[in-house]
Amino acid sequence: MNIFKQLILSIYSPKSIASWRHQGIGKTILFVFLLVLISIIPTSIQISTDIVNGFNVVEQSIDKDIPDFTIADGELISDHDSPVKIEHPDLTVIFDSTGETELNDLDLSINTIALLKNDFAIIIPGSTTDHFSYSTMDIALTKGDIANFVNSIDSLLAIAIPILIIFIFLFASAMKFIGISVLALIGIMIYRKGEELKYRHMWRMAAYSIVLPTIFFMIMDIFRTVVPYGFMLNWLVSILVLFLALKEIPPAKEAEL
Question: DSSP class of residue 63?
């Protein structure tokens, strides 16, 4: 059967999932890789777009919006006597050489790059908040130095983004294979009747049982919607689909006929 047709049937047909328990393992593995590839498309596009837009905003802010400055002796030095806040749809840039704005004053709910009196900070909501003190630097930097550095990184994005996407694919594939293996073990524990199933048969069924929650969370990623208790929901749906598929396996006597 065509692998794309299997993808569609896996969403709503436990009987089809049960019927694929004896298919070649190579086809099942190929199916998992295809499923992972499809599932990371929204995330990959969003990350790529955010990175490109972020660098464009940073370049524009440095060139046009941020006043001349120097970072030396652990401090941000500028003739500008008030904080500068540049707000864009996807990123906020804060420049403050006066010391009025501190790390604790930053809004952790929005993407932010902050050049403060003594610290540099990057905020990515739901991910990381990184900051470091200028005092750890042994050299002095000017606005021109940082602009040249940002431009040099920008020119490497065409290489860096594909590498990042490949890393995301490999990581997502590893996690998916681990999840399928655990789900297959759960299937072995809950299966009590019908024809004898080896772990390899259960693994194949588990690989198709994860399609429904995977597609659901992919759609949620498209709309950038956070699903409450997503981890638990993913496992509950996967186990339920596998359980329904196991019920479609004929009883042992019927299977022998």
Answer: I
